[in-house]
Input
Amino acid sequence: VPERSQSAADNGGSNRFIRAAKSAFYDYGTWPLLLGATAFRASEYDSKLTEFAMERKPLFSDNENAARSTDLLRSFDDALAMGTALAVNESWSDKSKRIVTESAALFVTRFRTTQMNARVSREYPDGSGDDAFGSHHAASPFAAAALTRRNIDSIEMPGWASTGINVSSYAAATASAWGRIEMGLHYPSDQLVSAAVGNFVAIFFHDAFLSDDLMLDFTLLPEGSYLALRIPF
Output
C-alpha cells in the first residue's frame, strides 16, 4: 500500500501537468510551427504568400467554395478525433473519459482562439476586420488531428492504416488553414501560431488527463440531476 501511494503521488498533482506541458510544447506539432510563424512574421513572405493565395486561389478557386470547404474540413477532423476515440479498445467507462477529455480539449482550443482574436489586433489581409491573429479553422482542426494521432497510438492496426489516417487528418487541417488564407482572412503566421496552440492544448489535455495512473470518474448525483467529474490531485 505505501508503494502504491508513493507512485500515485509521484504521478499525480503538479508533476503530471508539468510533464504534460513539456510533452505538448516539445511535440513536433508545436514548437516547429511557432518557429515557422516567427520566420514568416519577420520576413516579407508573410505578405507575399498571402497575396499569392488571395490572387491565384490554387486550392479552392473562390471564396465561397473556400468557406464551405474549410467548414467541412474542420468538421471532418472533429469527427475523426471522436471516431478514433471510440475505436480504442477499452471499456465504455474509459471511452467516456476519453470522449469527455478530448471534447474539453477542443472546447478550450476554441476558447483560447477566441481570446487571441479579442486581445491581439491585426488587420485581415483583405482589410475587412482586425482580428486576423487567431484562426478557428487552423487551431481546431490541428487540435483534432493531434487527438487523432494520440488515439491511433492506442489502436492496434497495420502501419499503412495508421499512417493513412494521420495523413488524412493533417492534410484536412492544413487545407482548412490554407483556405482561410485564400479568403484573405489570415496570414500564414496567424495560421501557424493557431495550429501550434491547438496542438499544444490537445496534447496537454490528452497526456494530463488520460494517463494510465489517473483516477478519473463520473458520478451521477441524486435523481440524475447532475453529472460530477472527479479528478484527484
Summary: The longest strand covers residues 217-220. The CA atoms of residues 178 and 191 lie 8 Å apart. Strands lie at 217-220, 227-230. The chain is about 70% helix and 5% strand.
